[in-house]
Amino acid sequence: MVKFCRALSGALVVVAFAACQDPLTVENWNNPDRSRVLANPGDLEVYIRGTYKTIFNGTFGTDGIGPSARSMSWENASNLANWGLGPRSAIPRAPIDNTRGNSYLGENQADFNAISRALRAAADGANKMEEVTLGSAGRNARARAFAWFSMGVAMGYLSATYDSAVIVDPHADINLIPELSSYADVNAAALVALDSALAWTNTAKTASTADGGYGTGNMLDDTWLNGSAFTADRFTQLIRTYKAYFRANVARSPADRAAVNWASVRDDAAAGITAGFEITTGSAVGWMAAGNQWYLYQQWGQLNQMIGGMADSTGAYDTWLATPQSNKSQFLIRTRDRRFPAGDTRALQQTNSPTPSLGQTVYFRNRREADSDAAPWGSYYDWYRMLAWYTPANRVGPFPTFVKAQNDLLRAEALIRLGDIAGAAALIDITRTRNGLPALAGVVTTATQPVPGGNACVPRVPQAPTYTTAACGTIMEAMKWEYRMETTYVSYVSQWMSGRGWGDLPEGTAVHWPVPYQEMDARGMATHPFYSLGGVGGAGGSVGKGNYGF
Question: How confident is the model at residue 292 (pLDDT cuts 50, 70, 90)?
Fold first, then answer.
């Protein structure tokens, strides 16, 4: 007799093989014996090396929660039902439906499953390294560092995205099914795991040359993080960057974000990446970044005028703000920000939307095709910064996974909150002045002072109490503007994560996803019933009007 288990999802599927077998029954050879497979040093190293790839493909490589989270955070605008774009970004906000058979059950589950699988795999790898040697102390330490790194990143993403998840201890009995923990506890565990990754990276670096140390040369060749080789020092920078990012972005509200340990964020970000982190994608190498939605233009991913209008210098944005929501229409954005096409007419802006190239400085084009409706948020503008990567390269080539500006601007936010306005201004200016905007350094000296530029200042922000006019924003708004421009579509839903902590999301926007109902079913309805989150007045929804009046 063979004992069967019901199908399990996410965090449970990775322990199903062990938990579902009766020791008195015939062995099921269709299930892998992980302990035996990972006993081979070469197989174990390959196994650990693949863990971050699973995370990347499960976040950047899937159209799971990403498209709707971007629309919910003002990152783009679409009225289409695909991936929940229109339904989840409509105002008033509706809850994320997590009932059985809901319209977006696949999207809700995709990211959770992939990241949870990577977490379990990394923990298995770290566990097996306790009894297997790869041939040298340095090589052993490298594998352990990478396993803990993947564990930290996986738990970091889970804690920032879902209201709860599992904390996986690599030293625990593999047959035990971890209980769900709160996002705050999972985030704390992620930071501990990343600290372990730092410690093992240092061990790998300082091991003697004879013992396989990585004091010089690359600790990771470009197969670990595809297309990017890392010395021990550079890998340390990446780990510190993720620590800063997850520590700040676990916040669900302005009060939570204010309570973040900003001194630690500042220090980790200051020790973080000094150049962008890129993954080389392509089906042949198995590292995939989704992109279909981004380049179907006006119907799917047009610039949201609520945010893009903050660049306008002509008063058109104020007119749009004062127009009733049901009557709002697209308008021409004229700005000194070079990430937008120049020109006083739409025809000129279309002419000045250049042929895409890698590394291009114009991020948004004024489209030439017919406009479709995405009222009231739709615009003439499509993001096309990475179009040369998408076609004709067919999504093969370097993809910005964590841009340097993102780390710089997170550090700038820390400095603003810690009172170092001059230090923050210098960091914000790195991208600000490069794109034609006047410098903040030496001009803005307080947190409440408006940014320079007069009527052409960027950003112009809706003003309380009516939010029908705009005025030059503060240094915090200037930081947020740069963060939005530089992270659009090249960061995993970071504008939704940061937007909830900044207080910018419309009332009722879900601040986290529920654990997918499939996972809750697998855990047993008696003790783990499924639930939905978000919606105006609902659990897990942002409370009160956002900073821009919605």
Answer: low
> Is the whole model's pTM more than 0.90, yes or no?
yes
Is the CATH number 1.25.40 carried by domain 10-62+89-279? yes
**Which residue is associated with the tokens 């008696």?**
526
Of the candidates 397, 413, 408, which has an alpha carbon nearest to the alpha carbon of residue 273? 408
**Tens digits of residue pLDDT in 510-535:** 999 999 999 999 999 778 899 999 99
Give the burial string for 234-264 (b: 16+ CB within 10 Å, else e). Answer: bbbbbbbbbbbbbbbbbbbbbeebeebebee
Q: How large is the average pLDDT for residues 408-415?
A: 98
Radius of gyration of the chain (CA): 24
Check if the beta carbon of residue 504 is closer than 8 Å to that of residue 74: yes
CB 93, CB 509: distance < 8 Å: yes
Q: How far is CA 539 from CA 247, 514, 527, in A?
A: 23, 11, 19
* pLDDT at 16 (0 to 100): 37
Mind listing the pLDDT tens digit for each residue in 293-309?
666 566 777 899 999 99
β-bridge mates for residue 366, sequence order: 381
- Residue 484 reports pLDDT greater than 80: yes
Place of tokens 């052993």: 140
The contacts found for 227-232 with CB under 8 angstroms, 24 or more apart, are 227/278, 227/279, 227/280, 227/398, 228/277, 228/278, 228/279, 228/280, 232/201, 232/202, 232/204, 232/205
Residue 174 predicted with pLDDT over 70 = yes
Q: Which residues lie below 8 Å from residue 21, measured CB to CB, with a gap of 6+?
A: 3, 27, 28, 31
Residue 176 has pLDDT above 60, yes or no: yes
∠ CA(305), CA(309), CA(313), 5° rounding? 155
Tell whether the torsion through CA atoms of 295, 299, 305 and 306 is positive or negative: negative
Q: Return the structure tokens found at 399.
A: 């993809």
Ranges of CATH 1.25.40 domains, the chain: 10-62+89-279
Q: Are 10 and 112 in contact (CB under 8 A)?
A: yes
Cα–Cα distance, 438 to 441 (Å, whole number): 9
